[in-house]
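R.M. (postdoc): so does anyone remember the format we settled on? I'll just put the structure tokens first.
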């Protein structure tokens, strides 16, 4: 019977020592945040009706950099988010909430 990806993940996580698990959790959280922020940037750009190329032009960067940002391939800095917001006529709002 083939092993599922979830089974492989569970097996690998169970084999980690506490330090490895902490690092995995940190990296996973960072990647998840980058993907969520990238998705928000893409949604805002599409709502503005402009292309990645046009957003890049307005930000003073390359289309490839916008593509990486939207794909979650890079974590956005606050400075980058401010450049996105300015280019789209939006405001950056940072909200910190207690974890559930």
């Amino acid at each position: 019977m083939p092993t599922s990806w979830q089974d492989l993940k569970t097996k690998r996580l169970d084999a980690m020592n506490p330090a490895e698990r902490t690092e995995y959790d940190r990296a996973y959280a960072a990647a998840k945040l980058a993907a969520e922020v990238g998705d928000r940037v893409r949604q805002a750009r599409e709502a503005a009706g402009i292309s990645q190329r046009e957003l890049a032009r307005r930000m003073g960067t390359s289309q490839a950099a916008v593509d990486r940002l939207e794909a979650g391939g890079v974590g956005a800095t606050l400075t980058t988010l401010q450049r996105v917001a300015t280019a789209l006529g939006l405001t950056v709002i940072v909200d910190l909430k207690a974890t559930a």
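R.M.: ...and that's the designed sequence above, right after the tokens. Also worth knowing: Residues 18-48 form the longest helix (31 residues). The radius of gyration is 18 Å.
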